[in-house]
Specification:
single chain; 768 residues; mainly beta; Immunoglobulin-like; 7 domains; 61 strands
């Protein structure tokens, strides 16, 4: 090899060696499970592209919280205890490459909620505002309304605003649960008292109409669809029906000489009100007494009041006045002017359809006269003669309902009023297929959740005419759909029942064993549509109600169907305690901490959970306070701890350890648990036996403590086929997590040979 070639190869080698850290750095990556978490949530990490060993460090701002000088672990977790800006630094010791990954820890997620402070009337909208703080936004707010723990209504909101209208007096509770991007949640609730609503009313001017008639507008307030009628021939109505907040125009026809008294009736359901309508026969101005000569009188065609009925086109009026006069009119459709002979020329615009009236005021210095002008409606309003709704099979799976409506030939529009909509549904004549006999075929969107009354009205240029009232509930009842059974899950003092329904469901009643009804828990005010999933094309929903545990029914009655209720106990989650995850370092256990000395406390807490005990008093931090006297300089006196807990919680134990294999197997078969010294200085829980009685299942709060100290056996995993395989590294144990803050693995479960467990001696924990 030539000297030049040798020098070139040496130079290339030096370059590669120099570039090695750079190349390695390019492949070295650190990934975090999330870049934002709340206090107490876990931040996981993983290292890729390097074999290690590694140095790990965690910083809060500029303060170093911990450092692991050297480890070969490529994944792990950390649980922050304070909010702030964090930095996780991983160093590949083989190359010197460093990676810094920042993340943010927010404060604890909290929720505040405000709403009406006083009782509301039925029919009034209650507005609630929820505001979340802390956590990791954006937030999702889930509102539910309950009455006596029965869920009536629910709605998801992204802005924290919720509106609910109760149709009847009741006492409700509005719950809100907020969930952030990480799945963390917080809850708040507020009570709502609903009093009796105002019922049916009409706002408008009921003062007497004068002789020249006129039109006044009334706003009708009603809990549903209303109808209006009048039997007096001098009164005309603009419409015969409407919804809450709809307008009703009342027109009084003029008459110069005849006073009249009548009324307009407005009906909603079983409630009726009557509006008295009065027409005076005078102009409403007191008669003037004049001592002047007759030359000062003022007349219109010889009258102080002239009534022009059926007014159209133009006409002249003879004005007799001894002094100058002038005329005024406030109606834009009436036009008045003085003609060449000194009389009054009046013209009117063509009538638009509905009846209307107005007047001209003629006056001089001493007298007054009036011209009352009335235009009747042109032609007759259209009418509805018949309505047939299509209740064919499978109706409840559809989004619309087909209606066949027969209208008079002069109808231009069909109007449908429904209580589930704020505005009526309208169909124009030009957009609808009409048969030769006047049948309009229309499809009406289904938004109802129960029984409703629908009003079908016809309209043309003369206004809204007669209508047909149709009750829809009977049609929907036949099409109701429910699952073959309802599932009830018991959880402490509550029962949650889930059943599959469609939006056509109007009522769900609870049945006891004798088929007697406890009562209706869902009525027409509830909104089933909110649960309908787009994934099933709106066909059905899995609807949920929550009841007190003592009211668990044997069946549900949905329409004409009886759906049996299958009761299941809710599977209670049993916590896995991680003694070395960093969160127990500041939790006191007498003169120590639970991280340092809490293995016996964690074992007792795990046992109590498995025996079915609940409540805060079985949490490790509270057990540590209660039994702090059990900790001595050499560690926890486990016999004292378990013996005192047995008295408090009522389970069976004894002072001496069990060391006979047959006795231990027999007690396992009776449901016994055992707290025992698994290795020197460490306590764990034995909570189960394999089918062949050769292996014991272990629940351990500190895997590293056991793995590094155990002697004479190994830890085992159980495979899917039932075989047991030895564990050579803690990463092989399912769910095991490495925490760099303590440089240790925390809690988990595995199997040990029964002979090893027996050799250590075990302490009994068995329900009496």
């Amino acid at each position: 090899m030539s000297r030049t070639r040798t020098l070139c190869m040496l130079f290339l080698l030096l370059v590669l060696l120099a570039l090695r850290p750079v190349l390695s750095e390019g492949a070295f990556e650190v990934a975090l499970g999330s870049d934002t978490v709340c206090i107490g949530e876990t931040v996981s990490f993983s290292v890729n592209g390097a074999e290690g060993p590694f140095r790990y460090a965690m910083y809060l701002g500029s303060t170093q919280l911990f450092q692991v000088a050297e480890t070969d672990r490529t994944s792990g977790a950390y649980i922050p205890q304070k909010p702030g800006s964090y930095l996780f630094r991983a160093t590949d010791l083989a190359t010197g490459s460093e990676k810094d990954v920042p993340f943010t820890v927010t404060g604890e997620l909290t929720l505040s909620m405000s709403g009406p402070e006083e009782a509301l009337a039925a029919g009034d909208a209650a507005v609630f505002f929820a505001e979340a703080s802390g956590g990791d936004g954006p937030y999702t707010y889930q509102f539910t309304v309950t009455e006596n723990r029965v869920t009536l209504y629910g709605r998801t909101s992204l802005d924290g605003q919720f509106v609910y209208t109760a149709a009847k007096p009741c006492e409700l509770t509005v719950h809100c649960t907020v969930t952030d991007r990480q799945g963390t949640s917080a809850s708040a609730q507020q009570h709502l008292i609903v009093s009796e609503g105002p019922g049916l009313s009409a706002d408008g001017d009921l003062s007497p109409f004068y002789l020249y008639g006129g039109t006044r507008t009334f706003v009708v307030h009603a809990p549903g669809i209303w109808t209006a009628s009048c039997d007096d021939d001098f009164i005309r109505l603009s419409t015969d029906c409407g919804a809450d907040g709809g307008e009703l125009d009342i027109t009084v026809l003029p008459d110069a000489k005849t006073a009249a008294q009548g009324s307009v009736s407005i009906v909603c359901g079983a409630t009726r009100i009557d509006l008295p309508i009065t027409r005076l026969a005078t102009d409403g101005i007191e008669k003037e007494v004049s001592l002047k000569s007759s030359e000062d009188t003022l007349t219109v065609d010889g009258e102080n009041l002239f009534v022009w009925t059926n007014a159209e086109g133009a006409r002249n009026f003879s004005i007799v006045s001894a002094s100058p006069w002038y005329a005024t009119c406030e109606e834009s459709w009436i036009h008045a002017d003085v003609n060449l002979d000194g009389n009054l020329s009046v013209s009117v615009d063509p009538c638009p359809g509905a009846a209307r009236s107005g007047h001209i005021h003629v006056t001089n210095d001493a007298a007054h006269a009036y011209i009352s002008i009335y235009q009747p409606s042109i032609g007759l309003t259209a009418s509805v003669t018949d309505v047939i709704l299509d209740a064919s099979a499978g109706l409840s799976y559809q989004d619309t309902l087909t209606a066949r409506v027969w209208l008079s030939a002069d109808a231009d529009r069909l109007i449908v009023y429904t209580s589930s909509r704020a505005e009526p549904i309208t169909f124009e004549k030009k957009d609808v297929r009409i048969s030769e006999d006047g049948m309009w075929t229309v499809r009406i969107p289904l938004e109802m959740s129960g029984q409703e009354e629908w009003l079908f009205a016809a309209q043309n240029f003369a206004g809204i005419g007669s209508m047909q009232l149709v009750t829809v509930s009977a049609l929907m009842e036949e099409a109701m759909f429910a699952s073959e059974s309802a599932k009830a899950v018991l959880d402490e003092d509550e029962c949650t029942i889930t059943v599959r329904v469609t939006s056509s469901v109007s009522a769900v009643a609870l049945l006891n064993e004798s088929s007697a009804e406890y009562g209706t828990v869902l009525d027409t005010d509830a909104d089933i549509d909110q649960y309908i999933s787009p994934a099933n094309h709106g066909r059905y929903a899995d609807w949920t109600i929550t009841l007190p545990k003592e009211h668990v029914p044997s069946a549900l009655r949905i329409g004409r169907e009886t759906v049996p209720v299958v009761v299941e106990e809710k599977e209670r989650p049993i916590p896995v305690f991680n003694q070395f995850d960093g969160s127990w370092a500041d939790v006191s256990y007498r003169h120590s901490s639970l991280e340092t000395s809490g293995c016996a406390i964690f074992t007792l807490s795990s046992a109590l959970y498995r025996l079915g005990f609940t409540g805060d008093d079985i949490r490790p931090e509270n057990l540590a306070k209660t039994y702090a006297f059990c900790l001595v300089d050499g560690g926890t006196l486990n016999s004292t701890l378990v013996g005192n807990a047995a008295k408090a919680f009522g389970f069976r134990t004894r002072y001496n350890l069990y060391e006979d294999k047959k006795e231990i197997v027999s007690l396992f078969e009776q449901g016994a648990l055992f707290s025992f010294s698994i290795v020197k200085g460490h306590i764990a829980l034995a909570d189960g036996l394999s089918e062949d009685q050769s292996m014991v299942h272990i629940v351990d709060s500190a895997l590293s403590a056991t793995f590094t100290r155990i002697d004479g056996t190994r830890l085992f995993n159980r495979e899917a086929d039932g075989a047991f395989t030895p564990v050579s590294d803690l990463e092989q144990i399912p769910g095991a997590v490495y925490y760099p803050e303590t440089d240790a693995y925390s809690g988990g479960s595995y199997w040990l040979p029964i002979d090893y467990v027996v050799s250590r001696g075990v302490r009994l924990i068995l329900l009496k």
